[in-house]
Design brief:
The protein has helices spanning about 10-25, 50-55, 65-75, 125-135, 145-155, 190-195, 235-250, 280-290, 295-305, 315-330, and strands spanning about 1-5, 40-45, 60-65, 85-100, 115, 140-145, 160-165, 185, 200-205, 215-230. By secondary structure, it is α/β, with parallel strands linked by helices. Strands 1, 2, 3, 4, 5, 6, 7, 8, 9 and 10 form a 10-stranded mixed beta sheet that branches.
Length: about 325
């Protein structure tokens, strides 16, 4: 199965790797060691091209993409009517705007007229970064370098700031040290200008201890992401493969909540809806079969917690496994 993601430096690529490595384990193998399902991450730009590649690229089945970009492609019909060609499996996490700046830049308005890297052309950070800066009235000289080149440009002074749009924490940013004197610049959330497409968010010391001082934080904005899929014809080989992927991913979802995986997994609610889009039918069917859906599952989980101490609760993954075992012993509850 082809899984389109962002650049290797971004969190979305780490999420795809989490899925690929986790689902590769625990499968029965054939006589020659073959497995039923293998997920192959494909490097994309995390933006419009991810959606286009799912629609047109042979072997590309699913993609992580910003919801706001998918919505606009559907509404503007840039690639024709994609309502029946693209479906969603589940909403994922939010992706924060990380605006790295040189030490002499103290505010967003000081970037006016300066050279700012927004990421590779067509990427989410380029498309949406340009839009946000325009809405906020900050006119810049745009460059479109990759993350590594942008970081080097910041260090040398060739650019004044660089934008990365990806889920926090981005492991790539551990390459930034205090010696670089590069800091994260706040992006103010002006509700009247940004509310329709963006969310307020905050970057904290725990996210980036090498950049953000203790007991301080940096306000920023964020967008929602989702796992989209090509709407293969029912009964086709690719449809059956995608159905196997969804069933395996959803069934083994508790495994992604452990410490070995990216913390963004804790933001994922598989049963959440994506307005304006149709969910892949086998995914919808799997969710409906889980004791009547999310509401019933929450009630059952609440009954499981009755009488248990609330102070110092056990690890979430361990608690969830206990809950599943309890449900097996108490069917129908």
């Amino acid at each position: 199965m082809g899984f389109l993601t962002g650049t290797p430096q971004c969190t979305e690529f780490a999420i795809a790797q989490d899925i690929a490595t986790t689902l590769a384990s625990g499968q029965e193998t054939g006589p020659h060691g073959e497995v039923a399902l293998r997920v192959l991450p494909i490097v994309g730009n995390g933006g419009v091209r991810n959606v286009l590649d799912v629609l047109t690229l042979a072997g590309a089945d699913v993609a992580i993409a910003p919801v706001v970009l998918a919505d606009r492609l559907r509404e503007t019909r840039t690639f024709g009517d994609i309502s029946d060609r693209l479906t969603y499996i589940a909403p994922l996490h939010i992706e924060e705007f990380h605006l790295l700046a040189r030490p002499e830049i103290g505010s967003l308005t000081e970037l006016t007229g300066k050279r700012v890297n927004l990421g590779e052309d067509g990427s989410a950070s380029a498309v949406l970064g340009r839009e946000v800066l325009n809405r906020l009235g900050v006119k810049i000289s745009e460059s479109n370098l990759g993350p590594e080149a942008a970081l080097e440009g910041l260090r040398k002074g060739d650019i004044s700031a660089a934008l990365l749009v990806s889920g926090k924490p981005i492991s790539f940013l551990t390459q930034v040290s205090q010696l670089d004197r590069i800091h994260l610049l706040p992006i103010p959330y002006f509700k009247e200008l940004l509310e329709k497409d963006y969310l307020p968010s905050t970057l904290r010391h725990n996210d980036y201890p090498n950049i953000i001082a203790a007991e301080t934080s940096v306000d920023t904005i964020a967008i929602k992401s989702a796992l989209f899929a090509y709407n293969w014809p029912g009964g086709s080989e690719r449809f059956r493969l995608l159905e196997l992927f969804v069933r395996t991913l959803f069934t083994r979802f508790p495994e992604f909540l452990g410490d070995a995986h990216h913390p963004k997994w804790h933001e994922v609610n598989l049963a959440a809806l994506l307005p304006g889009w149709r969910r892949f039918a086998p995914a919808e069917r799997w969710l409906q079969q889980q004791s009547g859906g999310e509401a019933a599952l929450r009630k059952a989980f609440g009954r499981f917690l009755e009488g248990k101490p609330t102070a110092n609760p056990p690890d979430r993954e361990e608690l969830f496994r206990d809950f599943l075992r309890w449900r097996e012993r108490n069917p129908g509850r």
